[in-house]
Amino acid sequence: MRSRRKIVSLMAIIVFSCLAMSLVDAVIRPDYAVKSAIKIILFLTLPIGYAIFAGGVPFPRLFAFERRGLLTSLLLGLGVFAFILGAYFGLGPLFDFTKVTGALEDNMGVNAGNFVLVALYISIVNSLLEEFFFRGFAFFTLKEQVGRRFAYVFSAGAFAVYHVAMMSSWFSAGLFLLLIAGLVVAGLLFNWLNERNGNIYASWMVHMFANFAINAIGLMLFGMI
After folding, report:
1. pLDDT for 163-184, tens place per residue?
2. What is the pLDDT of residues 123-165, one digit of tens each?
3. Which residues contact 61 (CB under 8 A, 6 or more apart)?
């Protein structure tokens, strides 16, 4: 497969997967188990298929564990955890979060009864799946085939856009735009961490702690803590 075809195919998979998940989140709205199965197909199976037929995906390197940067990533993850909770307690009264639990129940079948299991899956498994797709597949592969600057912007933008349909009914317009901007910044940060460490463990750790904080807020919104 020629270089241009490989690049077009790579970008098409990223865009298609994000748009397909947007359709699932905004229109089909299955329960969370079905949604997770669809996401695994899009975010795991399609990249593996691309690697088999096109090559050029540095999968072995993505999971090469190194202690270098581990402590820094852990401390950064703890810092992000504290920042998100601090922002919620400090700025929470300024925004309306009442739609969040209703949207979760109506759109994904997530409620107080199953939230803990869903929260653990989101924090640990789902965060790894997203890091594999947006950083391991999109960023590292685009960086090698297109260039560093484009890979940074495209993968971070795709990461933010992917969340649009999922969160569009959760918050007011102002808070929603603030969160999308934050997701772009997070995507750029995750790319930098992985580029610095040469694998996806660094961003996964920070992403995981961010999800722990967000899900802790979810527990409070459901009145469980």
Report:
1. 876 766 565 666 777 778 888 9
2. 999 999 999 999 999 999 999 888 899 999 999 999 998 887 6
3. 140, 198, 199
Round to whole Å and give the CA distance between 35 and 23: 11
Q: How many CB atoms lie within 10 A of CB 111?
A: 12
CB contact at 8 A, 133 and 13 = no
What stretches of 66-124 show up as alpha helix (H) in DSSP?
A: 70-91, 98-108, 115-120
- What local confidence, expressed as pLDDT, does residue 107 receive? 61
Copy the structure tokens of residue 162: 């992917």
Are residues 25 and 35 in contact, defined by beta-carbon separation less than 8 angstroms? yes
Whole-model pTM?
Answer: 0.87
Tokens of 134: 């947006």
Rounded to the nearest angstrom, the gap between the alpha carbon of residue 50 and the centroid of all alpha carbons in its chain is 20
Residue type, position 216, single letter: A
Residue type, 68: R
What is the pLDDT, as a whole number, of residue 221?
A: 81
Residue type, 120: L
